[in-house]
Design goal:
The structure is a homodimer of 238-residue chains. The first copy, chain A, is an alpha/beta fold and 238 residues long. Chain A contains eleven helices and six strands. Chains A, B: Keywords: Hydrolase.
Amino acid sequence: MAVQALIFDVFGTLVDWRGSIARQLAPVFTAKGIGTDPAAFADAWRARYDPAMDPVREGLEAYRPLDDLHLENLRHTLLQFGLSDRFETAELDEMNRVWERLDPWEDVVPALTRLKRDYLIAPCSNGSIAMMARLATHGALPWDCVLGADIARSYKPDPEVYRAAVNALRLDAGEVVMVASHNGDLAAAAACGLKTAFVPRPGEHGPGQTSDLRAEGAWTWVAEDLVQLCDLLDGPAL
Amino acid sequence: MAVQALIFDVFGTLVDWRGSIARQLAPVFTAKGIGTDPAAFADAWRARYDPAMDPVREGLEAYRPLDDLHLENLRHTLLQFGLSDRFETAELDEMNRVWERLDPWEDVVPALTRLKRDYLIAPCSNGSIAMMARLATHGALPWDCVLGADIARSYKPDPEVYRAAVNALRLDAGEVVMVASHNGDLAAAAACGLKTAFVPRPGEHGPGQTSDLRAEGAWTWVAEDLVQLCDLLDGPAL
């Protein structure tokens, strides 16, 4: 079945959340005389991401957009670092918006621009529509539409998220490619019948990264980066 | 409250559905020796649009994407013109896709491109995400995301559609402008607290148009076209 659309994981696969958050928090911490390493803070904040989504995935809590979970996680992370009394509520809201200003890896915009000529392209992220739209403004990501958690009202890897994306595009699952730098995301998409493409992002978690350094499944395509994925898609049909 | 986003009606306000459908059906009818006026056929097809959505708006039927309603309406319209036996199922599916290839009015792309620099912009249409994404590809509409019927699972003027759009953007209603060439659409948006902007499209229904020729409510802005609306938004704050 010919590919009609590519849908993308965003955090890690397309944008450098760790580096971007560290760069944005550094001057905030400095201005307040806080000595915490901003990259370590970013890691600790992000570490609360998956556990926070679990009750929604398991149906124990109603869906809430990721922006709200990030804000709660921020409060817990500040507590963990002994910084709870250093920020006003309005400052927390502003700090939480770093997730709307994450920088794309350098191959992303050229590759998306090229893919958009032949395919529909959309994020399929756990981020909200609002977050994805503002990230696209920040990074000039030329999406055709925004899919993902908000339209499914659940979080990946719940199969409903991949199915909702395919249905919203009015395509068959085999006409859609899930693109991610995380093997678990691709395994869940493949189980729903989507095609899969892996690109490694060995810098996502900083210099000590040990996970997702290489493809760990029989993904439809494995590329060094998104520009090479464009070349593979331009090649002979599978 | 400062404007953060503009959301747009699409059929009529941004794209010339009547002219585009007539232009696309003309060669199809000619090839089959069908003498029906394609513009009259477009009018008849579109006349079934609102009645088909009513059971969903009234909660009597589950939400289905507009693509499906258009296809049913096409079958009825062919019956009405005595043309039911002239098209195979695959031809009907292809004919139904004229709704993904509607041409924008000439002010639309320049105005959206300009608005996108300062605001989030999104369609808030009764069309599906798939239809809006493909229309954007066809007409080079530079959306930040796609809102509207699919994310609300209902049809305008159900207030839920405007509320779902505002919520998806994580804004207050007063930070969002509904832009339309239909007074009824704006009345429903205003009742939900959105700001409103009217642009007339006196050619939407062809030379005999009698409805929506001018603003019929106290809309926040009334402009001659979308480029003039950009100028008004750049002017002194209200």
